[in-house]
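From the thread on structure requests for the teaching lab: each student submitted one protein with a one-line request. Submission from student K.M.:

"Model Zinc-binding alcohol dehydrogenase family protein from Chitinophaga varians, tokens only."
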Amino acid sequence: MQAIVLNGFGEAGQFREAELPMPVYRENELLIEIKAAAFNPIDYQMRQGRRESQHMHSPVLGRELAGIVVAAGAQTKGFRPGDKVIAAAGSKGSNGTYATHIALNYQMVAPLPAALPFTTATAIPSAGLTAWQTFQRIHAHPEERIFLTGGAGAVGSFLIKLLKAHGSHQLFTAAGNEQSKAALEILGLPATHILDYRQPNLAQRLLDAGGQGYFDWGIDIVGGSISETAAEVIGLNKGYADITFLGTSRTRELLFDKGAHVINISNYAYAAANQLSWYGQNLRELATLLNNNVITPPAVQIVGRLSADTVRQAHIMMENNQTYGRKLVMTME
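Reply posted by the TA:
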């Protein structure tokens, strides 16, 4: 099979094209021909050798896919060759999704949402599952005030859609360019709820914009200094969802001083606990919401076809915050 291989940790130039053996699928696995793969910030964090790289077992990165089942192991259920599917493979597949094929446990796979092309469907699994887990675990009430860092990103956009579809309207976020602001307004956020993080005193401006004191939830999807803002604006004993594990020491101090209720959001936790059915089951729930038009599919940008150049370009765009509310996607042909 064709694949893009990471030569070693470092810059985006570390990728090269390679011909690798076809994955051997086990009795509980599906062999999937990948038609499109999406890119995630965790991809470049792994490329840089950061924390998530500990879970790598293949030099082929990429964590989600849309494709077609080629073969099904004897112990699989519910799938047969020819089925169109989506999956968040994480680090559980035979290799990553920057490749034409992958072998993956059938419990992590779900049918492709109706009427969606591969290029759109591939943008659902990773960001969708992260947003869905966050939505389910915070149990936000419609009247609660919520601040999300990185609202225009893939996870943020998905989460905003889920929250709005279930009645939340006090949603606030920050953006650093007009394209991201426009993408957030398309999602239904008022301009007064989208603050420029490049301007000073973001925390105070958020509190002023909220108009009713401290926030009930801070949700960090970015890490770094803006995670401190998310911790600053929540009130005593309020909630904080950490999706990145990239908060600062000051973030942790603020949360401790406020006695915050901290929820760590980790899709990998279910794989580590060998609860693989969590992935397929929750992808099916997301597909139902999409099929019933409760939420809309993510906006995507096709970067190019399978090649080292396409992967390099996508990584650079993510690192430079140039996605502008769209999920970056690579096709295989």
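TA comment: Residues 127-264 form a domain with the Rossmann fold fold (CATH 3.40.50.720). The CA atoms of residues 317 and 323 lie 6 Å apart.
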